[in-house]
Amino acid sequence: MRSMLFVPGDRPERFDKAVASGADAVIFDLEDAVAPERRAESRRHIASYLAKSTHRSVPLWVRVNPVDSLDALADVSAVVVGRPDGIVLPKAQSGADVLRVDHWLEILEAQAGLAPGSIRLLPMITESAAALLAMSSFARLPARVSAVTWGAEDLATDLGALANRDASGRYEPPYVWASSLCLTVAAAAGVLAIDTVDTEIRDVAAVESRARESRRSGYLGKLAIHPSQISAIHAAFTPSADEIAEAQRIVAAFAAASGQGALRLDGKLYDRPHLIKAERILAAAAR
């Protein structure tokens, strides 16, 4: 999933537009984008839309409220009957929060007649100082967790920061650290890493530039808050023709090298890490 687009759960008139936006997945939001007094109504809108969406062009996810809130279990219970493709769990404080939601989903899937593990889970793992200090607890995750992501806005609030970026638009050190921890946890847990949102909705060049930096760092996709960001994100996370051609040469060279661990190609020395990178590029291109 190169892009996952948020849409407020209390704006059902936007649901079809979000699905048709070109995003690789849509996330119906029950958390930050919805006022507490509108959440019950939003659950009904989302559950109804999910139930009607039996032939989906893109995966449909739901961001619920944090596990320790009064809304969390009500959110999950309300939408499981509509068979969402996944649940986004915000403000996870530790791996225990992820396990708790995993257990909820096991029970609710059984009650709804769904296959165990059919609803995936995407935890947001860096939205508080406590979560950063508990990062190692996310290294072993339930099988339904397909990726992890991070958040800079809530982390800035928790840290008492006035902003999370400097004057040039680059993240300040605490948020670079949080992003690095997200990438590290994803690698340790064997899941994908999805980068956080950009708040710019008009400066798409800035969105694309940051998305390219994200891909170089190891992210395989990015969250989006507006349809205008989708094309820029896709441009950044889609392998170029030159990347594909180089990856094909590397894979072909290793295939012809009869088990060699290292080889020379185009005046450069390549070994197994280069082969793995090339295979990932071709897999991304195929997707």
Descriptive overview:
- The protein is 44% helix and 15% strand.
- By secondary structure, the protein is of the alpha/beta class.
- The chain folds into two domains: 235 residues, Phosphoenolpyruvate-binding domains (TIM Barrel); 46 residues, no CATH class.
- The longest helix has 18 residues.
- It starts with a strand and ends with a helix.
Q: Please compute the radius of gyration using only Cα atoms.
A: 20 Å
What value does the average pLDDT take?
94
Give me the number of helical elements: 11
Strand order across the largest sheet:
5-4-3-2-1-8-7-6
Name the CATH architecture of the largest domain: Alpha-Beta Barrel
Helix and strand pattern: EHEHEHEHEHEHHEHEHHEEH
Biggest sheet layout: 8 strands, parallel
- What is the CATH T-level topology of the largest domain? TIM Barrel
Q: Give the percentage of residues in beta strands.
A: 5-15%
What is the number of strand segments?
A: 10
Question: What is the 3D shape?
Answer: globular
Low-confidence stretches: none
Helix share, percent: 40-55%
Number of domains: 2
CATH-defined superfamily of the largest domain = Phosphoenolpyruvate-binding domains
Output the structural class. alpha/beta
Distance between the termini: 9 Å
Q: Which CATH class of the largest domain is shown?
A: Alpha Beta
